[in-house]
Amino acid sequence: MTNITLVLGDITEQSVDAVVNAANSSLLGGGGVDGAIHRRGGPDILDECRDLRGSRYGKGLPAGQAVATTAGRLPARWVIHTVGPVFSATEDRSATLASCYRASLRVADELGARTVAFPAVSTGVYRWPLDDAARIALTTARDTDTSVTEVRFVLFDQRAYDAFETALNELPPA
Ligand code: APR
């Protein structure tokens, strides 16, 4: 049974087995969560990302997929990089956003990670409305069969935390 928890804080401070990064397809860093993870985690993370670009992901990591690297100096063992979809008002990309969570949990299972911290993927630079992103994230985490025992959503501000808390309370029965 996976325990879903909500935390108001900084994902780079979470002592978990795996921290999920809201990356972009280049895997070569950015702002937001991506910037914080690389800044705090140090160059080893980027080195492994560059290796991935030089091998399995020559064209970059597609949206909805996930891949792991070392966590460098973070209080975690791995970073699982996933690429969220950019929000579109005309095209429903919900399945791709759900895939970020499902694929990240599958990678966590492959690693043997039991505790995983997620940010609110796509809700920053990629402009996904928080309440809808929270619903997709929580529904997917609850409905995905995984050996992960704790899925921890780490929200960076009170507005995001409140959106996730509301969505968690309103989750329809499985
Ligand atoms: N810890 C937890 N959450 C954070 C942190 C942090 N240190 N920093 C930012 N966030 C929150 C944001 O407030 C937002 O709610 O993470 C959520 C995702 O925002 P972004 O990091 O902007 O990610 P996303 O919207 O998925 O856009 C990804 O942004 O940083 C670039 O390289 C990244 O191109 C990619 C794009």
Short description, anyone?
This protein has 174 residues and is an alpha/beta fold. It contains 5 helices and 6 strands; from the N terminus they run E-E-H-H-E-E-H-E-H-E-H.
What features would you highlight for this structure?
174 residues; alpha/beta; Leucine Aminopeptidase, subunit E, domain 1; 6-stranded mixed beta sheet; 5 helices; globular; binds adenosine-5-diphosphoribose; Appr-1-p processing domain protein; Macro_dom; Macro_dom-like
Overall number of domains: 1
Ligands (ions, cofactors included): adenosine-5-diphosphoribose
Radius of gyration: 15 Å
The helix-and-strand class reads alpha/beta
Mean of all residue-level pLDDT scores? 98
Q: Might you state the CATH topology name?
A: Leucine Aminopeptidase, subunit E, domain 1
Protein name: Appr-1-p processing domain protein
Domain Macro: 1-172
Pfam families: Macro (PF01661)
InterPro entries: Macro_dom, Macro_dom-like
Description:
The chain has 174 residues and is of the alpha/beta class. It has one domain (3-170): Leucine Aminopeptidase, subunit E, domain 1 (3-Layer(aba) Sandwich), CATH 3.40.220.10. Helices cover 37% and strands 21% of the residues. It has five helices and six strands, in the order E-E-H-H-E-E-H-E-H-E-H. Strands 1-6-5-2-4-3 form a six-stranded mixed beta sheet, sandwiched between helices. Helix 3 packs across helix 4 and helix 4 (130-143) packs across helix 5 (158-169). The chain is globular. The model has no long low-confidence stretch (mean pLDDT 98). Adenosine-5-diphosphoribose is lined by residues 10-12, 22-24, 30-36, 84, 119-126, 154, 156, 160. Residues 1-172 form the Macro domain. This is Appr-1-p processing domain protein. Pfam families: Macro.
